[in-house]
Amino acid sequence: MTSNSDKNDIPPLGFKGSDLPPYITSDPPKILIIGAGLSGLFLGNLLEKTNIPYEIFERAPSKSRPMGSVMCLSAGILPAIEQIGALDDLMKFSKPTRTFNLYTADMGTIAKLVADEVSVTGYDRVLFARSELYNLLLSRVPPKKIHLSKKLMSFQQNHQGVMARFSDGSTIHGDVLVGADGAHSAVRHHLFKTLKEQNKLPTNDMRSMNKGYMCFLGTTNPLDPVKFPDVDGEESCNAMNIGDKSSPYTWVMYSVPGNRLCWNVIIQLELAAVESEQFRNSEWAPESNKRILNSLRHFKTIYGTLGDIFDATNDEGVSRVFFEDMLYETWNHGRTVLIGDAAHKMLPSTGAGAINGMQDAVILANRLYDIQPTSFETIKAALSDYRDERFDNVKSQYSNTHMSARLQFGHTIHERIIRHVVFNWMPKWMQNRQVLKDNAFRPQVNFLPQVPPRGTGVIIPQRPSTRRPEGRRDQDKDNDKKEKEESGPCAVVL
Question: What pTM was estimated for this model as a whole?
């Protein structure tokens, strides 16, 4: 039975009791996932490996995604991808990245970074076009479990269940509602509105997201390796140009399979007040993007000019986004939980956003698997445990993205000095320690066979399953040995 305080804690539902699940059942909880982005699809992939029923609801009318920007995954999530049998498919459209070249606007060398991560983590850092991972995860979810044109309007929850209502008038009942619907999450908006009305929303969660940078991004069509050397190499060819103080831009490109380049052009808004106002107010359409990008065509790159890259990119494949960031304190309440950008929007300076969203999915899947029996109390406890297990690690990564953004995209005098020191004076051993620290959290799915630890670094133990408590004993023993060998300071690097 549920206490009166619990009943008052969750607003009453407005649907018939005959449609509701029982208060307590031995059946696994039914999961309603709002949002078919990477976090939502990865959670679906994980739940597909167990007997937990789920459905995914996406506001977009189609499953297609533009090519978009490059993505980078590392040892922090690759073991979980290996567990579900998707690593080999991922590697077919990926390239390892082991070097990174930084240049001035006039092609003067700032630094050349070499990071052989596979020797310390057991995995290469791999690059690919974001849409290809999306298509891979989508292909592994049964079509009948994904519902399109489902824009969430509201939801209600209490000790009996949760009901989601969509813009087409339809409703769906379940046991757990997962907000995986991105930075401007409708689930979070409705949850926070309710909590604010009840004076239960922390003050920090009432703030707006920060907007420090704006980015144009795209992926070229296949390129001629003669005109674009190394675009067909086995490793990704990476280059970043950082503009001078009169031109607060950073432009980056990465080669991906198919002889293509993923590219970004980033502007620091605080140093371009007039231009940022233009960017904010101009129409977000291909014609508007092209007009602004035309003013940047003369910028130099290792392949000629940005104009050469733009000409090889279809206009409709160019996107414009703000680099926003926000770490929310409230991730769960009652039967509702947030994952990915809905809970923590990070700057994309380290690739941590996608990795952390997928790590959320792993830990949440573990906690959902442990729910026995299915009741309001066990669900609340599971969602709270998920947040507790993830928050400190996400908070650390969130701070790292700010430092990395200043190193890569910053144009103030202070940021230029920091960049010079970090990229030119930091010893190799300190860089390796940071790599180990960044990849120490490598969650795996408790209900699937474990991938053996790789590399030389300590792996942070995760909470074992209450249904399979033996899950990580071998890894913990291995960590005890490695911890004795690990000591010393860590510094944030690119």
Answer: 0.86
